[in-house]
């Protein structure tokens, strides 16, 4: 499993123009192979920009971003991205959505059925294979999104507030289920969120960013044991981490 290394990365939108805006300033980060990482910070500190660069959607104005020593350039199936808004195709059933990537790459019908069965089960959608997205709740559509990214078997999962639009209870269920899926394959995950509790519950490492321009303010290693359980959210250790991180954020 690969490691992501970000070195001396700076990004300025509209460089050289009167309205140029430096959103990321000298970022140095390593996301270890197989680790679950979260990025938190106030709105506008550049979290999504950093994640989109890791996806290869655009290049930094300065510095490098490497995956296994190779400079990240352009999008690649090895780096799967889940956005806040679900990207489910409304004209495909749940199963067809999930096997979309492999089908595009020419997987046989038998392989597609196998992938559909594996991932509908893994993301908790068994029994819903033939449903249409319009028949699903927001949480279920998110499950389709995650299943579809996993079905591509990426090495890295980049998640931009994937549960941001869900109610609190659904969100907690999705977090636990995501950890279950992740623990079976240990892909390298980078998860952007506003929600400190979500970051602490999920991650091995939390990057706290400060804004204007976005910089790495602090890195918190989370040593809570795995598997994580909902009861841990109420422990003193958890609450103390949350309080400490909350005080670091620019409010
Ligand atoms: N394509 C773009 N062109 C110009 N400015 C941009 C572009 N994309 C983002 N920005 C600016 O860059 C800054 C960082 O945006 P970004 O979306 O990365 O922040 P964020 O930390 O993810 O915010 P949020 O938590 O609100 O999603 C913002 O000031 C935003 O307006």
From TrEMBL:
One example GO MF annotation: ATP hydrolysis activity
Matches recorded under InterPro entries: AAA+_ATPase, ABC_transporter-like_ATP-bd, ABC_transporter-like_CS, ABC_transporter_ATP-bind, P-loop_NTPase
Domain of life: Bacteria
SUPFAM superfamilies per the UniProt record, alphabetical: P-loop containing nucleoside triphosphate hydrolases
All residue ranges annotated as the ABC transporter domain in the record: 4-236
Short name of any one Pfam family annotated for the protein: ABC_tran
Keyword line: ATP-binding, Nucleotide-binding, Transport
Family assignment from sequence similarity: Belongs to the ABC transporter superfamily.
UniProt protein name: NitT/TauT family transport system ATP-binding protein
Organism lineage string: Bacteria, Pseudomonadati, Pseudomonadota, Alphaproteobacteria, Rhodobacterales
């Amino acid at each position: 499993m690969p490691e992501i290394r970000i070195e001396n990365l700076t990004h300025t939108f509209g460089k050289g123009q009167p309205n140029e805006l430096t959103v990321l300033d000298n970022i140095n980060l390593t996301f270890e192979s197989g680790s679950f990482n979260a990025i938190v910070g106030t709105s506008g500190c550049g979290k999504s920009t950093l994640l989109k660069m890791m996806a290869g959607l655009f290049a930094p104005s300065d510095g490098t971003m490497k995956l296994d020593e190779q400079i990240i350039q352009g999008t690649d199936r090895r780096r799967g991205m889940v956005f806040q808004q679900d990207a489910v195709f409304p004209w495909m059933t749940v199963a067809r959505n999930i096997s979309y990537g492999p089908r595009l790459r020419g997987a046989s019908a038998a392989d597609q059925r196998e992938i559909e069965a594996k991932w509908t089960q893994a993301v908790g959608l068994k029994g819903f294979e033939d449903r249409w997205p319009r028949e699903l709740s927001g949480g279920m559509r998110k499950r389709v999104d995650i299943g579809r990214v996993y079905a591509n078997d990426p090495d890295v999962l980049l998640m931009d507030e994937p549960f941001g639009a869900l109610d609190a209870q659904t969100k907690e269920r999705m977090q636990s289920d995501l950890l279950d899926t992740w623990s079976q394959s240990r892909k390298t995950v980078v998860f952007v969120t506003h929600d400190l509790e979500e970051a602490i519950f999920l991650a091995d490492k939390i990057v706290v960013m400060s804004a204007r321009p976005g910089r790495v303010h602090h890195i918190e290693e989370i040593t809570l044991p795995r598997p994580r359980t909902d009861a841990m959210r109420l422990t003193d250790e958890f609450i103390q981490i949350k309080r400490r991180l909350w005080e670091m954020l620019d409010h």
